Amino acid sequence: MNKTLIIGGQVAVTLDNNRVSDIQFLPDDEFAQVLEQGSLTHGQLQMLRNVAFYYVPNKPRVRAKSVLLRKAAHGRISATRDEAIQLTLKVFKREGLDVKETMMHEALELLNNVKL
Questions:
Q1: How far, in Å, CA of 38 to CA of 7, rounded?
Q2: Sign, CA torsion 113/62/32/10
């Protein structure tokens, strides 16, 4: 069910060194009910050359439904909803660790301490 909503008002554009720093829409009437319904929808808002606004909502992000089994200093092991076991490890270069040794040690620690 598509609905088009037309809201009258004014647009205030703030320029800072000839660059747009802030865009504000000031409606003529209260439309709090519309804001409540659309507050969970995030998207892209673009102001066109004729000062019209164009809004495209983002597609909903599908999040993984994994269950954490165990955490480690640099990773985790989880059971995913498609009945797989997922091992995630992340070591930053700036930590100054031996990456290969650290990942091997933590992977073995996670695998040995979890009931699969």
A1: 14
A2: positive
The three-point CA angle 41-47-53 to 5° equals 55
Task: Kindly report the number of other CB atoms within 10 A of residue 42's CB atom.
Answer: 11
Q: Are the C-beta atoms of residues 53 and 43 closer than 8 Å to each other?
A: no
- 8-61 pLDDT tens trace: 778 777 888 887 777 777 777 765 455 444 444 567 777 666 666 666 677 777
Query: Would you state the structure tokens that stand for residue 99, as one six-digit string?
Result: 């990456």
Report the C-alpha gap between 39 and 61 in whole angstroms.
16
Please spell the DSSP secondary structure of the chain, one letter per residue.
Answer: --------EEEEEEEETTEEEEEEEEESS--HHHHHHHTT--EEEEE-TTS-EEEEEPPPPPPP--EEEEEETTEEEEE-TTS-EEEEE---GGG---HHHHHHHHHHHHHHTS--
